[in-house]
Amino acid sequence: MNFSASIEKLIEEFEKLPSIGHKTAVRLAFHILNSSTEECEKFAETIVNAKKNLRYCSVCNNISDTDPCEICSNAKRDKEMICVVEDVRDIAQIEKTHEYNGVYHVLNGVISPMNGIGPNDIKLKELITRVGSNDVKELILATNPNVEGEATAMYISKLVKPFNLKVTRIAHGIPIGGDLEYVDEVTLAKALENRTEL
Amino acid sequence: MNFSASIEKLIEEFEKLPSIGHKTAVRLAFHILNSSTEECEKFAETIVNAKKNLRYCSVCNNISDTDPCEICSNAKRDKEMICVVEDVRDIAQIEKTHEYNGVYHVLNGVISPMNGIGPNDIKLKELITRVGSNDVKELILATNPNVEGEATAMYISKLVKPFNLKVTRIAHGIPIGGDLEYVDEVTLAKALENRTEL
Predict the structure, then answer these.
(1) Fewer CB within a 10 Å sphere, N or C end of chain B?
(2) How far does B197 lie from chain A, in Å, by closest CA?
(3) Contacts of A44 in chain B (CB under 8 A)
(4) Rounded Cα distance, A68 and A56, in Å
C-alpha cells in the first residue's frame, strides 16, 4: 500500500482491465485524479449508462441501444445478404470499409472443441432459422482466418447447403501494403491459388 | 459512428486517457460491457470516490485521504530528513525500496523555462518555509536526472545554503542489472566519476 486507500482502489480497478499493468494503471488513476470532478463524474456515468443501455439485437445479436439494431432496422440495407462474423467488434471493422451494404449475423464465438465450444454454444441455430425463413440470397462467411474460424466457416457452409443459396468466404491473401518477404508461406500459397486475372 | 451511441461515448471516454488509442479503448469498453452490472457500478463509484476523497497534505503536498498525510503523521518517520521529489508518484517509488525513513516534499513539477515554469510555479516557497522553521538536518534532492531535474536540484541547493544543512543528490550510475555495452556515455562517465571504494 504505497498510495492512499481510495487511490489504491482506483488503481486496482484499472488493473482489472485487459492489457493494463500496474504502471499503466497508476498513470491512468493519476490522470483521473488530475481531471475535474465533472469529468470524473461524466466518466463514471458513461460506464454505468453503457452497461444499462446495453441490448442485443434480436435479429443479428449485434450490441445496440435499440432492438432491432440500427443496421437491421435500416431500410436501405440489403436484407438478402448476410455477413456472418464471430464478434460484435468485427461488424465495426467491416462497416469502416464502407463497402458492404448487407446485414450481419454475430455468432458470439466459433466452434472450438479444444475449448469445449460446440455448434450449440454459438448462435448457429438462430442463423439457420434466419436463413430458412427469409429471402436470403448470399451468406458471406467472415470468421477469422485461423483454425477455428475456417472450421466454423466449413461447418456453416455444409449446414446451409439444403437452402440452396450462394455461400462465400472472405478472400485470403497478402495484405495491402504488405511485403512478400514478410508474408508467411500459407498466406502466400493462398494468394497464388486465388490469383485474379487482370 | 460504428457502435451504438452509449458504447461510442464509453470508447471516447477511454480514448481521453493517456496512452490509450482507439483500438485499446474499444477493447476496454467491451471488457466493461462484458462484466456484470455490479462490477460496472463499482468501477464508476471508485472513480468518483477517489476524486472526492482526494486531499493534498498541507505539509508535503503528497496526495492523501487524510491531512497531514500518512507519512507526515507517522511518528516513526524521521522528520529531520526531507526527500524532495517532483511528483507524488515518486514517493511511491521510493517507498517501495523500504530504505528511506524520512519525510518528503513534493514540488509538483520542476523549473523549466522552456515550458514557462519558474521557481514560483512549483512548491519551492513551501520547502524553504519548512526548512527554515523546522529542525531539518538533511535535504535529499531526488528530482529526475534530466536537464530540468538537475537544474532544479542545483537551484534548491543554492537556495538553502543559508540554512547550513546537509544537501545531497541521489547517485547517478549504471542501473543494477544493466549492461556496460548499452549504457550511454554520460551515465558511464558519471559512474566512473562517482566510483566508490570497496
Answers:
(1) C
(2) 34
(3) 43-45, 47-48
(4) 8
